[in-house]
Amino acid sequence: MAESKIEKQEPSSDFESLYEKAVKKINETNFPITILSAKFKKKFLNFYNLPANEQLELISDLSTIQGLPQEMADAIKQFPYFHTIPTDTLNEIGSYLKKKGPHKDKDISAFVATHKKPHTLFQPDRLGDLTYQLLLNVVTGKQDKAEKIVDMHPKLQLARGTVTDYSSRIFKDITAYEYAYWVKDTHMRWMLERHMSEATKAAMLKRCEDIEKNGLTYVQHGVEVKGSKHFDFAPLKTALKNYIDGYDNWYNTNNWTAMEAAWMQVGKAQRDVPVHVANEYCREDRSFDPKPTFKEDKLPRGTTFYNYRTDKKESWFPLVISDSDGLGVNMAVSRARGGNLHAVGGSRVWWRVCPTSLRVVDWVAIDQLDRVRTDDLTQSRENLLVNQPVGICCGAKIPTHI
Prior knowledge:
Order of helices and strands: HHHHHHHHEEHHHEEHHHEEEHEHEE
Number of helices: 16
Oligomer: single chain
Radius of gyration: 31 Å
């Protein structure tokens, strides 16, 4: 393997500038030849063609010579030692840092910032990894983690990538904000908007306008869906409405099979809801009765509910569906009223059927959520207008402390 050589720095770098001054000094006719041997002079003038080990050896030898011209002494002091570290060694350091766990992002950031060489080696892949992590955190509702990324790397909001959400929808060439816009996740958008420059806002506004005009394309369970402008609440609302409309007749005729089948359609529709909808079902600080305004400053990002069939708390996402168990197989989730629902985690699962006293409450709340989140999209587009202050959303100024 050929030995590594120091990469010539940009003219603006300290070493490059000082090296050029030193070379000019050596080439002057009045340069004191006795200070440098012909060997050292030749090596110094041919510095960038030397192997890394000879560069280091020359710098070491020159640093011991007394009386060097100031130009040479200054260049020697600014020698970029980092460039002489073999790429394989830097890769080993990078691999080690990636395995460090919770603090790896901070350590890698510090490593990348030490010098141009590790920055060139690791920053592209690192930003690619961070883009995916940002997308993944957004589609899974991990708002705090997403905010940490955009706080450190705000330009990643312009980065596109491929991501799969909890409902197995695969989006390609999409940004985090576009997904939050499509899925109507208002609280996620609020957060992302706070970390946007004017240029990013302008770019996102164009993309949102394009979504409104042409929609997005995604693939779900092998089926390509084109031109989808927003997540559609209609399947869930329709399933709830069908259950409500048929309940009395099924109950009066003891048609439990039809009732259960209708309730399972609710569960199947709940498989496809984005995580922020599940968060609304599962929040512990209020139920769906009375009808929420859905204008709270914060959205708790919980996804757990109490399953009366198994007598334990379970998580809505990631989906766990089998032939005998899961949403739409033998259960669906009802938020409905408070009472002991709050005590057991915010939501409950009804096995087989849902009691008549709860059947309307969920539909009213979900319909309200759909309306409010759709209206929020208009406000988000206004928030993205360049040179405009952050606007009013959900009837109140977008919080700066979320």
